Amino acid sequence: MPQINIRPAVAADIPLLVELDHDYVTDYVWQMDVQRPEEGQINIGFRQVRLPRSARVEYPRPVRALRENWQSRSGLLVARLQDQVVGYISLSKEIAPLTTWVTDLAIMRRVRRQGIAGALIFAAQEWAQASNTHRLVLDMQPKNYPAICLALKLGFDLCGYNDRYYPNHDIALFFAKSVR
Prior knowledge:
Layout: E1 4-8, H1 14-19, E2 24-35, E3 43-57, H2 64-69, E4 75-81, E5 84-92, E6 99-107, H3 116-130, E7 135-140, H4 145-153, E8 157-162, E9 172-178
């Protein structure tokens, strides 16, 4: 397998990153179940449900915002494979104290499932450590089964959710991992 190189983004990368296919295809969704077994108690669970057919899901955030505000992000790391930009991860330290938040993660469709997203997340963990934060948090749609599988594989734990979190009003699942 060719070497994946990760480095901070530069201005020339931005048009290439915006053009990446940010959508994804999924066969599963994490369905939320809410139960109220008795007064004063709410149980919330998520379960994996197979969809009747594969679904293409649009990216939940406006990708064009990357072009406008990439320099104001706390960190933006780019993955290169054979001298071609193939993905990126965007990081924010402004969302929660002592926490680095992954706000975007996108990989070129034709090179997905080759370890690039994992390499970017490991680089983000190192970046978070160097930035004196204690946790790395990933947010994703419950439809993003590939990302959920990756988060669990890399040792992240489900730590919460937020209804209507994204601009498209979709639920966000939060997965966290200590980087200290």
